[in-house]
Each structure stands twice: as C-alpha cells, then as structure tokens.
Amino acid sequence: MMGRRRSGGVAMAVAALLLLAAAAASASPASTLEGFQPLSKIAIHKTTVDLHDSAYVRATPALLGDQGEDTEWVTVKYGWANPSADDWIAVFSPADFLSGSCPNPSRYPGEPLLCTAPIKYQWANYSANYLYWGKGSIRFQLINQRYDFSFALFTGGLENPKLVAVSKPISFKNPKAPVYPRLAQGKSYDEMTVTWTSGYDISEAYPFVEWGMVVLSGSGAAATAPARTVGWREPGFIHTAFLRDLWPNKEYYYKIGHELSDGSIVWGKQYTFRAPPFPGQNSLQRIIVFGDMGKAERDGSNEFANYQPGSLNTTDRLFIEHCLSTVDRKHQPWLIFAAHRVLGYSSNSWYADQGSFEEPEGRESLQKLWQKHRVDVAFFGHVHNYERTCPLYQSQCVSGEKSRFSGTMNGTIFVIAGGGGSHLSDYTSAIPKWSVFRDRDYGFVKLTAFNHSSLLFEYKKSSDGKVYDSFTVDRDYRDVLSCVHDSCYPTTLAS
Ligand SMILES: [Fe+2]
Q1: CA-CA distance, 182 to 163, in Å (whole number)?
Q2: Class of domain 38-172
Q3: Which of 39, 103, 141, 358 is most exposed by smallest CB count within 10 Å?
Q4: What is residue 448's DSSP assignment?
Q5: If residue 472 lies in a helix (H) or strand (E), which one and from where to where?
Q6: What is the pLDDT of residue 347?
Q7: Residues with Cβ within 5 Å of ion ligand 1?
C-alpha cells in the first residue's frame, strides 16, 4: 500500500500520455498454464468441521494499529496432535466465518457449511519442523480493510478441507480509519487530487483534507453492498479531494480526516508532496516508469500471487492526436508516450512468433503521429521484461548511436518496462536489429530531466538498484523543429 510519498516527479516539463491503463497484469495467450488464482484452488464448499481439543491457533497482537498503523504483521502460532503435509492456515476476514449461514434462502440438502473463503492462506509446514513437532509459527501481513480477522487450521489439503481449530478474532483499533491516500495530478499543473478509503459514510462523518494552511472539503462516494452475495467484500467509502491553485514546485503537506457529529476528528497520517512546476519552468524533474506490478504477497502467503486477465481499451486516436499536437515543445521539451500493451516494438517470444513484434496493428496507426510530433521515448508494459530499441521509424534504426544522442531527433526510442513484478517473459532467440538492450529481470526506468535540453535515461534492476542500461539525450528546441522523415512531409524508408 501507499507509503510516504514525495511526488516531485509526478509532473515535469514533459507531456506524458497514459493510455490503456490496464490495472491488471499480463494475460497473453502464451501463458495458458498460468493464471490460476491461488484462492480459487480451495474447495471451500466441501469444508467439514472437526474441531479437536488438541488443536489450537493463536494470533498476536490482539489489537492491531495501536499506534495508528494501517498495516501490521501478525504472528500466528498453531499446533495439534496429527500434523500432516496437507495442513494449512487460513486467514478469514470478517472473523466470524463459521456462524453465518450460506445465502441460499430455501436451504437445500448438502448446502455448503462455509460460504466464506479465506483472504489468504499458507501451508502449515511452511514453518520449519511442523511435521516433527506438530506445531508451527507463521507471520502474516494484514492491512486495515475495515473488518476483524480470525485464523483457522485446516487439514485435508485444499480439496477436502477439514476445520480443526479457530483462533480468537483480532482487529485494528479503528477499522474505519481513513487510509491509503493516493495522489494524482489534476487537470492542470497547479492541481492535485487525493483519493482515500475509509469506513465512514459521508452522512456519518465529514471528510476533508487539511493541507498547507487551508482546509478543503472532499466528496464522498458511497458503495452499496449487494444484498446477499458470497465472496463480496465491502470496499469502504472512496473519497476524493481536489487541492487547487498550488504554487509551482512548492512542497505541501496534506492530511486526510473525518469530522464526526460530536465534533471530534479522526485523522489519517500526514504526507507531503511537491507541486508540479509551471510548464516551462526550469527545474530538475525525475520520474520512475514501470509496468505490470506484481501482486505477490510480501509475507509469502497465497493470495494474489498470480495475475488476473488484463483489459485492452480502445485507443482514441483523436484524443492522442490532440494531446500530442497541443504540446508546446519550447516549454515542454520532452515528449513521452506510455501505454500498457506494446504498440511499439518488443522481441518478446510470443510477439515474435506472431511475426508482429508488437500488438497486431499496434504501431501501424500511431507511428506517423509519433514521428510527426517527435515523441522522444515511448514506454510499454504487458511484456514482463526490459528492452530498449534504437531511435526507430518504420522498423528501421535511424541512428547507429547507442548511448549519447544529440542534435536533430529523427526517430522514437521504444522501451519495454514491464518488469514491475509479475512473472517474467521470454525473448525470441534471434535478436532484431533494432533491439539495443534486453534484460529478462525485474526492474524499472528512471528518467531525469536536468533542464530543457538534457535528459538522462537509466534502467535499474530491482534486485540491487544499480544501473544496467542508460543513455543521454542532449538537444535544443531547434532540433525538435527540424524536418525528418514524415515529420513535415511524407517520405518512406523503404529501400
Ligand atoms: Fe498486461
């Protein structure tokens, strides 16, 4: 979840287009063996209950978030007389998963005993020597999602779960606390939005953001629970506030809060951000670029360890053209394009097998626009590795230079930065001429704009934070204006 966030790099003297913002990770047809959601393997409807006196599950601490934390590690100790490799520990939230009846109102024979699935689980012998001693200890990381938790010991594996012990419930001190503020740039350089989650309906408490010296109201959006459903989780209330008329490049603090009817205030944590610069203002700007962030659990438990199907939206060519054509390159010198799926170039093996080295027909309708409007770098995800091309137009390298680009720009550099954490993708064995650097590993890109004419690109591995690929671009406004293939009038590179 969100940590302290200094977002100086949210907006820079760069026009960045974020398209096809698919939240989910990859779902390429090459990955048919993957994609089983770990929780879906649990046959929870077959559960039987056989509580044993010798079996126990204990979780500590009993009170989470005592110091206002919104995430906390819990130690779960468990044991019983008949340990087996099929035993597993489940985390339930809400805690009371046993007494509730299943939703079928007419009650049919054989109706499942449990209609609530765990939110995560781990094998009991994940703890060393569990099979020998019949007891173990596992740590789970829990986040405040407005409900209490309980822990259960099952035997019989995931296919035929038999419940043998349940812990006492534990909960966060204030389950409704406002949590996880997300910052985003507003519609202009001097506006930021803060979006957060709480358990407070807008009629119960007044949501607001305190920032700088000004208190600004937010708006609450209610989410309604389906009347009787299984596996549905109350998402809480989502609030969004607009922080407007920000002074360029100035640091602000902000703090979310809810005022209750008795006048008391429930505060979130305090965070800071740096407002974007005025467009064209000389300033150092840095951004991080990565795609396809994995969803594996930090505590090693089985939850969203894999991906869910992604979605490809329809691009609105007019929208893209409008975005690109309204950039004032004198004041917004660096033009960065970003999309989720590969509309540029990738030597990922699946795309190579297709013969397209991209999403089919991805770049065909866009490359003239990128060339005409002189896009410096285009980023894509969906393919989970790193790859950087030469400056490129119509599949042809337009420069032999690899690391220090200067003067007139005559093609776009395409970058796959999909190593955010999802499973890694393979390359084709034959390396295309346009492919300058490939790395099948987890990593991210850091862009540093020192000023209007000097840009540093760095690719770093997540494992050690060191730079493994980099290049610089040095050029002036006139270099962006000069005519190259198809930027002023159509030509072809075919030979
Ligand atoms: Fe994807």
Answers
A1: 39
A2: mainly beta
A3: 103
A4: E
A5: strand 467-474
A6: 97
A7: 26, 310, 382
Mean pLDDT of 257-283: 90
Tokens found for residue 288: 């991080």
Is 138 within 8 Å of 105 (Cβ atoms)?
no
Domain 14-34+279-481 sits in which CATH superfamily?
Metallo-dependent phosphatases (3.60.21.10)
3-state secondary structure 97-139: CCCCCCCCCCCCCCCCCCCCCCCEEEEHHHCCCHHHHCEEEEE
In this predicted structure, what is the pLDDT of residue 219?
47
Q: Specify the higher pLDDT residue, 119 or 447.
A: 447
Is the predicted pLDDT of residue 348 greater than 90, yes or no? yes
Distance 307 CA to ligand 1 centre (A): 9
Pick the CATH number of 179-274 from 2.60.40.380, 2.40.10.10, 3.40.50.2300, 3.40.50.12780: 2.60.40.380
The alpha carbon of 22 and the centre of ligand 1 are apart by a number of angstroms equal to 7
Domain extents in the chain:
14-34+279-481, 38-172, 179-274
The pLDDT of residue 230 is 54
Region 205-231: what's the mean pLDDT?
57
Mean pLDDT is lowest, of 52-61, 169-178, 210-219, 447-456, for 210-219
Cα-to-centroid distance, 44 and ligand 1 (Å)? 30
Question: 38-172 and 179-274 share one CATH topology?
Answer: yes
